Amino acid sequence: MYLTPQHILLAGATGLTGELLLDRLLNEPTVERVLAPSRKPLADHPHLENPVGDPAVFLPQLSGPVDVAFCCLGTTIKQAGSEEAFRAVDHDMVVAFAKRAREMGARHLIVISAIGADPESSIFYNRVKGEMEQSLRAQDWPQLTIARPSLLIGERLEERPAEKIAGLFSKLIPGKYHGIEACELARALWRLALEDQQGVRVIESDELRKLGK
C-alpha cells in the first residue's frame, strides 16, 4: 500500500543527505508543506517553513500537522569535538526530535542510522547509533524506518579528505558495505516514505542503493 504524505517534518536539512532530500520534497507535487528547522537559514520556498536557531528552543515550539518525519541529523566525533558532544547530537537530539514529531501527530519516522549500529558494539560510534535505534523503538511508533547506509559519497561543504579517499575504495566493496551516493540515499528515503508498512523496518545499505536507483 502506498501513501501520499502532504505535511513533512525534516531535521538535518543543511547536511549532505538532508539538503538533497529537502530539494526533492519541495519539488514533489503532493507535498504541501515542509517544516525544516535548522541552525542556519535555508533558501526561501513557498512550501517551506524554516524556524532558525537553537533546537532546544525551537523544538517545543514546532506546530502544525505532520504526516511523516525524516531525521537526517548526524555528525562525527571530530566535528563534534568530543564523544560526549557527538552523543548529544547523534543520540539525544535525534531522540528529542522524534519525540516532538510523534507529539505533533507524525505516524511514520524515517531516520538515518549507520551500517554496523549495535548497542553492544565495542566501537563507540556504532554503539551510539545502536542506542539511538533502541531509544526510537521504545517510542512505539506506528511505523519506524531505520536506514543504515554505508559510507556516504557526495560533495560536502567542508573538506573531508580521508572520507573522500575511503569513498573511492568503498565503491569496490561488494554488498551492503559498498559506498552509497547521497543522492541515492535521498531518493530511497522518499520512496520509503510512500510505503505503508506498519512496525519497525531496518533497511541496510545494499537495499537502500537499489531503492535509490
UniProtKB/TrEMBL annotation:
One Pfam family from the record: NAD_binding_10
Protein origin, superkingdom: Bacteria
GO MF term list: NAD binding; oxidoreductase activity, acting on the aldehyde or oxo group of donors, NAD or NADP as acceptor
Coiled-coil portions: none
Semialdehyde dehydrogenase NAD-binding domain mapped to chain residues: 7-106
Record protein name field: Oxidoreductase
Organism the protein comes from: Pseudomonas lundensis
